[in-house]
Amino acid sequence: MNAQEWLAHGNGVPADVVVLGAPISKASISPSNAWSTPPAVRAALARFPTWDAEHDTDLGDLTVRDLGDVEGDRDDPDARDAHARIQAAVTEAARRGRCVAVIGGDNSLTRPAMHGLVAAHGGDWGLLTLDAHHDCRPLDGGPRNGTPVRELIEAGLPGERVAQVGIHPFGNAREQAEWAHARHVHVYPVAQVRKAGIDTTLATALSALVRSGASRIYVDVDVDVVDRAFAPACPASMPGGLLPAELLRAVHTLGRNPRVAGIDITEVDAEADVAGVTVRLAAAALLAFCSGVAGRPKSRPL
Ligand SMILES: [Mn+2]
Questions:
Q1: First to last CA, the chain
Q2: How many angstroms does the Cα of residue 1 sit away from the middle of ligand 1?
Q3: How far does the centroid of ligand 1 lie from the alpha carbon of residue 106, in Å?
Q4: How remote is the CA of residue 167 from the centroid of ligand 1, in Å?
Q5: CA of 135 to the centre of ligand 1 (A)
Q6: What is the pLDDT of residue 299?
Q7: What superfamily would CATH give domain 3-294?
Q8: For residue 224, how far is its CA from the centre of ligand 1 (angstroms)?
Q9: Are 106 and 24 in contact (CB under 8 A)?
Q10: How far does residue 157's CA lie from ligand 1's centre (Å)?
């Protein structure tokens, strides 16, 4: 059984991981066909086995459920209606399983997806982003793929319950960095990952969120956090980003963390990919997260 078959045939109730596609790209600041990515990621899973040798884990032991794709925004003037559909679908998905994994789609889906989880579970949430950007742009143009973190904070998420790993030195206007800093967002630039290592950086970021009161954590993976050489299908990826191995290690660690109840993988435009490099990385990230979930300490609730 390959990973594509594993995902297609999974029907666990409740599932350990519920997968949902969010094919949207109308809110993208740069031209993007990220709507095309969820089916491309599912197809790329056929390239992978379910066996994770590094962690001695077979994903076949994990119950998974693919709910398919939410209706996207291709036929709509903007992403607003699709955002509402994504939020409702994530709330429904959260009732069917322990972790929800949303495959985008552009990064604007992070606000409705996280709100969908908060609506399902309540509690004190934190947000951890793996992203080259703060995504704290002003909201005068409405929700875009550069605004979800600002939207979430302005809707009530305390800034100190946001941790951003992999911020790129040339990824943001000064105003956005200052906006995040003024709200006490925990920022871990890519240089810090390079110096301290991804494990230490992630442990520091997670403990900052917990110290700030987060009992549940939502993870936003914007694949443009990865170096453009390895993420050519992301409109805003740049040279000098994280390495694929660092991203995969990070999402595995996050999957293992019992506080993590949701993840999204965003910003890949499958139509702009080169040799399947980025889509296959997104597929690998989904599998690494699932392998982490499978490795959660058994004595603690998922
Ligand atoms: Mn982003």
A1: 25
A2: 34
A3: 8
A4: 10
A5: 6
A6: 54
A7: Ureohydrolase domain (3.40.800.10)
A8: 7
A9: yes
A10: 17
DSSP-assigned beta bridge partners for residue 216: 125
Q: CA-to-CA distance for 206 and 141, rounded, in angstroms?
A: 32
The alpha carbon of 236 and the centre of ligand 1 are apart by a number of angstroms equal to 9
Cα(133) to centroid(ligand 1), Å: 6
Q: How far is the CA of 132 from the centre of ligand 1 (A)?
A: 7
Q: What is the pLDDT of residue 13?
A: 82
Q: For residue 197, what are the CA distances in angstroms to 188, 193, 234? A: 11, 5, 24
Residue 264 pairs in a beta bridge with 102, 220
- What are the sequence ranges of the domains in the chain? 3-294
Task: Give the pLDDT of the chain (302 residues) as one tens digit per residue.
Answer: 999 999 999 988 899 999 999 999 999 999 999 999 999 999 999 999 999 999 999 999 999 999 999 999 999 999 999 999 999 999 999 999 999 999 999 999 999 999 999 999 999 999 999 999 999 999 999 999 999 999 999 999 999 999 999 999 999 999 999 999 999 999 999 999 999 999 999 999 999 999 999 999 999 999 999 999 999 999 999 999 999 999 999 999 999 999 999 999 999 999 999 999 999 999 999 999 999 999 998 754 44
Gap from CA of 299 to ligand 1 centroid (Å): 35
CA of 146 to the centre of ligand 1 (A): 6
How far away, in angstroms, is 223 Cα from ligand 1 center?
8
Q: Which of 122, 232, 249, 226 is nearest to 168 (CA)?
A: 226
